């Protein structure tokens, strides 16, 4: 809210507050059926001390004492200092001020100190409640604005994380095809067609919030087929899908990093080495298990097999499925295993 609009709102709110107060007290002070000029003047003079103390309360005491210190200090100050101001200004209002503004009339204040104190409590309490209510609503509005900004930030970060995955995937796939092209085998054209299907899926779905799970699994299957083409023992790659994968949705390109890493860091050269990928749906919960033997470079280097891609995927899981996923990663000198569970309900 702009400063000009804020000031305008404050003026309107004060006008409404004091107009209501003036109308109520004017009718209380009126002695007959008809409101006379003297009633208007008396009501005006009556409000002077309370306008002073309420203004001090709203613009000085609440922001500088109540909100910064504690309520007891605030109550002590308003009880003694506030009442002192009210009684002093009340005497001036029906004395020098009345004589100066309305010399043709003679006024006498009719309220004793105890009554003035009670009236002051009513005005101060009402103004304090109004001011605190405004602060509460303003704080709620700011919280909503912050929440919206955080949501927009999260979405932007999520899109950025998705965008970071695709170049990595493309780089690995092209490397595989390049290797086959150097060998001048007949596999290269077929692999290019498979890569074309995969890239079409990536381009069409990378900016979507959700895709059909069966479509995502089909994409994963093509990716695995493409990767198996470069292996000397493709039969040691096991890919299994169980359960009803229809009518469920998932965030696109979320699972591929685990599978990509299995081929990048895994080994199937040894007799007992395997890459095992299983996807199962149980009561709308997706369970993915990716297990692979680590190649010698991975074992010797002790590098982090998760890499940037896996770190990004973990962030995406936190953004998209907070409290609805569980990721368990185990790794020793020879085996890497990731178990991911996502509640897709």
Can I get a quick summary?
65% of the residues lie in helices and 13% in strands. The protein is built from 9 helices and 8 strands.
Keywords:
345 residues; alpha+beta; Heat Shock Protein 90; 2 domains; six-stranded mixed β-sheet; two-stranded antiparallel ribbon; 8 strands; rod-shaped
What proportion strand? 5-15%
N-to-C order of helices and strands: HHHHHEHEEHEEEHHEE
In total, the number of strands is: 8
Q: What is the CATH topology descriptor of the largest domain? A: Heat Shock Protein 90
Major sheet: 6 strands, mixed
Helices, by number, come to 9
What Rg is obtained from the alpha carbons, in whole angstroms? 38 Å
Mean pLDDT: 83
User: How many distinct folded domains?
Assistant: 2
Low-pLDDT stretches: 298-306
Derived from helix and strand composition plus strand pairing, the structural class reads alpha+beta
The gross shape turns out to be rod-shaped
- Per CATH, which architecture of the largest domain? 2-Layer Sandwich
How far is the N terminus from the C terminus? 41 Å
**CATH class of the largest domain, anyone?**
Alpha Beta
Secondary structure layout:
Elements (H helix, E strand, L loop, with lengths): L2 H27 L7 H30 L4 H31 L11 H71 L3 H19 L5 E2 H16 L8 E6 L6 E2 L5 H10 E2 L7 E8 L2 E10 L1 H6 L5 H14 L4 E7 L3 E9 L2
Parallel strand pairs: 2-5
Antiparallel strand pairs: 1-3, 4-6, 5-6, 6-8, 7-8
Protein model, in words:
This protein has helices at 3-29, 37-66, 71-101, 113-183, 187-205, 213-228, 256-265, 296-301, 307-320, and strands spanning 211-212, 237-242, 249-250, 266-267, 275-282, 285-294, 325-331, 335-343. The chain is of the alpha+beta class. The protein folds into two domains: 3-110, no CATH class; 152-343, Heat Shock Protein 90, CATH 3.30.565. Strands 2, 4, 5, 6, 7 and 8 form a six-stranded mixed sheet that branches. Strands 1-3 form a two-stranded antiparallel ribbon. A hairpin with a 2-residue loop joins β5 and β6 (285-294). α4 packs antiparallel against α5. It is rod-shaped and about 115 Å long. Mean pLDDT is 83; it is low at 298-306.
């Amino acid at each position: 809210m702009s400063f000009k609009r804020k000031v305008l709102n404050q003026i309107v709110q004060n006008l409404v507050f004091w107009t209501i107060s003036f109308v109520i007290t004017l009718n209380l002070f009126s002695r007959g059926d008809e409101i006379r000029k003297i009633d208007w003047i008396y009501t005006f003079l009556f409000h002077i001390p309370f306008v002073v103390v309420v203004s001090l309360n709203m613009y000085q005491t609440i922001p500088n004492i109540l909100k910064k210190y504690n309520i007891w200090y605030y109550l002590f100050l308003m009880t003694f200092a506030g009442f002192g101001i009210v009684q002093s200004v009340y005497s001036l209002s029906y004395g020098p001020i009345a004589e100066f503004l309305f010399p043709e009339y003679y006024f006498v204040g009719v309220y004793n100190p105890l009554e003035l104190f009670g009236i002051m409590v009513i005005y101060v309490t009402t103004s304090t409640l109004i001011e605190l209510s405004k602060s509460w609503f303003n704080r709620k509005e700011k919280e909503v604005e912050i929440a919206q900004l955080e949501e927009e930030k999260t979405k932007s970060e999520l899109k950025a994380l998705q965008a970071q995955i695709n170049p990595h995937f493309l780089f690995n796939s092209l490397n595989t095809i390049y290797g086959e092209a150097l060998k001048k085998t007949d596999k290269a054209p077929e692999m290019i067609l498979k890569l074309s299907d995969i890239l079409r899926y990536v381009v069409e779905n990378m900016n979507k919030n959700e895709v059909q799970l069966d479509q995502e699994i089909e994409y994963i299957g093509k990716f695995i087929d493409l990767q198996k083409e470069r292996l000397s023992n493709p039969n040691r790659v096991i890919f299994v899908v169980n359960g009803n994968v229809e009518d469920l949705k998932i965030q696109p390109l979320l699972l591929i990093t685990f599978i990509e890493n299995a081929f990048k860091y895994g080994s199937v050269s040894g007799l007992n080495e395997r890459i095992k990928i299983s996807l199962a749906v149980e009561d709308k919960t997706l369970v993915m298990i990716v297990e692979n033997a680590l190649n010698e470079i991975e074992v010797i280097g002790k590098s982090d097999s998760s890499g940037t891609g896996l770190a990004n995927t973990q962030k995406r899981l936190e953004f998209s499925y907070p409290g609805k996923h569980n990721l368990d990663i185990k790794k020793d000198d020879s085996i890497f295993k990731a178990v991911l569970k996502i509640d897709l309900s």
